[in-house]
Amino acid sequence: MKIIITGAYVIGTHLAKLLSRDHEDITLIDEDIERLNKINTEFDLLTMQAMPNSIKALKEAGVSNADLFIAVTPDENLNMTSCMLAKALGAKKTVAKIDDAEYTEPQLHEFFSNLGVSSIICPEMLAAKDINNGLKMSWVRQRWDVHDGALVMLGIKLRETCEILNRPLKDLCGPDDPYHVVAIKRDGDTIIPGGNDELKLYDLVYFMTTKQYIPLIRKMVGKEHYIDVKNVMIMGGGSTAVRAVETMPEYMHAKIIEIDEKRCEELNELLRTDKTLVINGDGRDTYLLKEEGINNTQAFVALTGNAETNILACLTAKRLGVRKTVAVVENLDYVSMAESLDIGTIINKKAIAASHIYQMMLDANVMNVRFLMTVNADVAEFVPQEGARVTKKPVRELGLPRGMTIGGIVRNGEGMLVSGNTLIQAGDTVVVFCYGLNMKNIEKFFI
C-alpha cells in the first residue's frame, strides 16, 4: 500500500512509526528539512522537502498511485486544500486533521467527500471523548464501548480489595461466565493470558463483558467503595478542555483552572455558566486547590501542554485525596513514567488520532481501531465478509496466531462473549485484541 503523509509533526511522526512497522510504502512530506532529518534516521520511509499543497511535489511523490493521503500539519486549511488536490490528482482515500469541531458533523461528511476529503479527524474531540469515558466510571482506567455498549472493555488496576487475585483464570472465567480477561499489563510486560495465568496485585487488567455485568466486575475487583464522579476539576483551559466540558454528562459539573486571564474571559463566553466555573490561577497551587474544594472533587484532569506539569499536578491531586486523575501526556517518552507513578487515565491525542487514521488502510470492514499505549497493543472491531476464513470453523479450530484473541462479538445488536465452540457469522462485529502482530495479518481472517 502506498501512503503519503504531509506534516512531520507529532501526529505525522507517530503515524509514520505505526505504519512503518507494517513495511508499507510511505512518503513523508514537510517543508522543514530539520524535522525530516530526525524522521529519516528513525524509520524506514522516504522523505521529501516541499509544501504539502505543491502540485509538483505531490506528483513527484506519486500521489496518482497513492492508496491513502494523510494531511496532519498544524494548519487545518492547508490540510483540507492538500487533500482536495491529492484526490483530484488520483489518491484513492484522503484524511485531514482539523481543529474546528463543526467540520465533524455527520451531515457534512458527504459535502467534504465531494470536495475530495474522504475523512476528517479532530484530535481534541477524540481526546474529549476518551476523557469523558474515563470520568463516567471512576474505578476504571480505560473504557471502550462496542456498538453503544453492547460489549464493553474495561481496563482496571487491581488493588488489595480485589477478590480474584492469585487464582487461575480457568477457574474464574470459563465459557459460560459473563466476562473474559483479554490482556494483562504487569511490570512493564503485556500478557495475553491463558487458563493457567493468574491475576496479581497491581496488574492492569483488561476485561471484556456486556453492559449488564459491569456491576459484577466492579464487585469482583473490589471497587464498590469508589464514589461516582460528579465534580471535576480541570487544569488548563485549552480546546481539549472546552470539548470535554461541552460533552460531559449533565450530572457532572466542572471547575476549570486557567493561568491566563485573557483565556479565562474567553472561556466564560464559550461555556455554560450553570455547569462550569472558570477560575484564574495556577492548578499546581495546593492552597488554591484546597480553597476551590479539591476535597469535594471526585476527578482531577490535567490538560496543559506540558506533560511534566500534568503528571505532577495529578500526583498532587492524589495526595489531596482525589481518586480519579486524568493526564494528557503528549510526549510518548513520559507515558511509561506516568504509569509507574500510578497516574490514572493517560490521554495522548496523537496516538488516538493515529489509531483512527490507521483503520483507513485496512482492506477488511474494520471500525474503531485503537492503539492501547498502556499495553502496546491494538484492539479493533472487524466485520467478516461472506465466506471469510473466520466464519468457516469454530474459534478453537481457526488457528489464531499467538498474541491474538477474540474478546467478543455483537450479533443483531446483542453483545456476546466468545468460547472455543463459537462459530462466527458474516456480518458479526468481532472485537479483536492483538499484541506484537501486524494488523494486516489479522485482517486476512475476515476477508
Automatic annotation (TrEMBL):
SUPFAM superfamilies xref list: NAD(P)-binding Rossmann-fold domains, TrkA C-terminal domain-like
PROSITE patterns cross-referenced by the UniProt entry: RCK_C, RCK_N
Any one annotated GO CC term: plasma membrane
Ranges where the RCK C-terminal domain occurs: 141-223, 367-447
The UniProt record lists the keyword Nucleotide-binding: no
A GO MF label: potassium ion transmembrane transporter activity
Keywords: Ion transport, NAD, Oxidoreductase, Potassium, Potassium transport, Transport
Keyword Transport belongs to the record: yes
Domain annotation RCK N-terminal: ranges: 1-125, 229-347
InterPro entries, per the entry: K_uptake_TrkA, NAD(P)-bd_dom_sf, RCK_C, RCK_C_sf, RCK_N, Trk_Ktr_HKT_K-transport
UniProt cross-references to NCBIfam families, sorted A to Z: PRK09496.2-6, PRK09496.3-2
Protein name: Trk system potassium uptake protein TrkA
Species assigned in the record: Hoylesella oralis ATCC 33269
Gene that this polypeptide is encoded by: ktrA
